Amino acid sequence: MLSPSLSFNWAFNRHANVYLRYARASRPGGIALTGETGPRLFDLDELGTIDLGIRYQAAETLSLSGSLFSTTWYQIQSDYLLANGLVSTRNAGKGIISGAEASSEWEPLTGLKLSAGASYVDALLVKAEDGLHLEDSRLPVTPNVTARLTAQYRFALGDWQSVIVAQANYVGSARLSFDQDLDRKMGHYAVASSALRLSRGRTTIGAGIDNIFNVRGDTFAFGNPFSIRTVRQFTPLRPRTLTLSIARRW
Description:
This protein is an all-beta fold and 250 residues long. The protein folds into two domains: 1-93 and 119-139, no CATH class; 143-250, no CATH class. Helix content is 0%, strand content 62%. It is built from no helices and 15 strands. It has an eleven-stranded antiparallel beta sheet, with no helix packed on it. Strand 7 (77-81) and strand 8 (87-91) form a beta hairpin. The model has no long low-confidence stretch (mean pLDDT 91).
């Protein structure tokens, strides 16, 4: 089973370069239980993706990158729930995933670094296998939008080398599965965190707080397949957490 790939890179000046990549891969098929007529085969699934991007570096203070991508996914292997509560696998059909992503890093002042990134993904099942009827054609477990923002500041505090970091992340909405019994909404939350670290010699003292606003987002809407039809299941974000640490290198 071959997984070919091809890439091309063009540095059209000392600050910027453009790249083009193509790759193809497949995943073996297998035997799945049906819970009715005995085992049956599901086919391998295969995808090919193309990625066009640009990177720009201005001295050491600013870097930018962006890309456009498109993936075609044939005979997608997808899980579904049997009547007895077990999970089986079938081929759902053909999907097309297209989108864009961008990121940047900027150092406006000595010691201060800002970074940001975002992506948009349009992931759809464009052709379903026979007998599979969908009201929502979005591919599972694929957030439509993600974004991040980070600020980091390094400074001296007496004999201590210090760094303050603040970060915010957003994960867009997503669905769990094509199967109506398994499908649940998840995602669509933003989380912020911050940390302070002081280092001197071999010793580092740190303090941090995660999930500052105690957001209660659902990261993965699944747990027990035997009860998912009757109760809501979810994997919550870690609640607001304060961490204090002391470390020493030997």
